Fold:
Amino acid sequence: VDTFVLTIEFPNQDPMVVQAIPDQVVDEDMPFSLNISSNFGDADDGDTLAFVATLEGGGTIPDWLAFDGDAGMFTGTPLNDDVALLSIEVTATDGEAAVADAFLLTVNNVNDSPVLVTSIGGQTAIEDVLFSLDVSPNFDDIDTGDTLSFEAALEGGGTLPGWITMEEVSGVLSGTPFNGDVGSLAIRITASDGELSASGVFELVVGNSNDIPILLSEIPDQNAAEDELFSLDVSSNFGDSDVGDSLSFYATLEGGSTLPGWLSLDPDSGVFSGTPLNEDVGSLSIELIVTDGEASASDVFVITVSNVNDPPSLLFPISNQKISEDSPFDLDVSPNFGDVDEGDTLSYVAVLENGDPLPSWLEFDEASGEFTGVLSEKDIETISIRVTASDGLESVSSVFAVEVVSVNHSPVLVTDLEDRIIQEGEPFIYTISGYFEDPDQEDILSYSAYLEGGDALPEWLDFDLNSGVFSVVPWRSIVGTLAIKVTVSDGDKEVTDEFLLQIVSYLQVVKIGHDLYLELDKPIGGLDCTLWESKDLINWERSVIQPDEVDGKLRFRIPNSLSCLYRIEVSE
Structure:
């Protein structure tokens, strides 16, 4: 038996379309999946089909549509750009033969939401300047033929302020902000295709531009009274629409001159204040300028200062006065008082401080304000005087003292001193106090005496400086004449006078022949006479020379060789 292999080869069977691929429909943006492997078959056992998909006519299928040639699986998600009607041809092959089938794939359009392509950047608007912003380029809609419309609102949903509007069709946001709109807005822009919408938010900052201050109401003319506080707040008469602006106030007299010293203006508060005085009476035309630092406004008003009677014033106190007795007194007190009111004439009244009238020696002129008078010794006392100046309505007073100063009077010589003649050896007392007196009773007088020419009194002549008594030491006196000057003093002033004191002797020198004799030129009448001799006027000794009586007179013979001083002592 022989065996062999018999191979029977069947011819290849072509693949075949088992079932036509049905047309397909898919919506844009929806996933699409289709397995067409079951739509083809192959009678040959073991054949494996492979698939190829193209557009009918040979073009490649769109990118969004993927096809697995082994599994025969279509997958993909068409987008807006993929909306179309596709005729797709699928070819199945077993490697030798092929078969094809075609089907329609319809991609239906689905409305796409508008999108914010680019964010809307922050924007700046300026007060009083037109603002415009086109937001349409910031949005897009891929749906062909879709037309967007635009809306704008505040981010939280509130409506836009009145100054800004949105053009619905063009997407232009525009308007002119004013001072009250200065600030920041968060605005939401919404773009709609009628079904769907997209939005974007941006910040719009409205910057301030300076607005000129304005005069809200004219400042009324004002009245002020002399010596009374004046105050005026003008801040409410002006305004500034700029939020945050602070106004400053300045004022001059109309024409540019500075305000008078009594009136001041607070530049921050706008308050005028001050107290006008008498010299400020009259009218002022004041220009007020208000500024915000860049622009200004002004107004002019009048302040009329009315006069009020001012009391007289004591310009300076009347100084205390010192006057001497017996001296004229003259004092004008009118310069011590004043009155700022023009035309006022002052009159004066003077009394003692306690209200008593002035002393009789003092006169006062009430019109001129002048004191006159002459003091006498009996008026020596200090007085306090009140002077009152009046303008007829009001008055002012001042008190001053008049101190009367006693004047020292010089001692006076009542009677001239009398010359005196005394006998040598006789006692002598001469009291001169009675020749002088002092008008000032309380003064104590002192005395001094010296020889004319300034020499001191001789030792034998005593003088008591307190009592003014001269006395002679009898046995020491010297024959001769003395010119004596006496001075009397009260310690401040003095007076002088002179008198002559003559000392005469009873002894005479008699020369008889060659002999000298001392002769007592006086009848002794039973008196006891003693001759004393001295060489120095200090030490005296009784002389041994005995007298002779000749013609009732005593005569002492003096030896020629004897040089002495002699004196006679006569006693009972």
Observations:
- The chain has a mean pLDDT of 88.
- The chain has no helices and 52 strands.
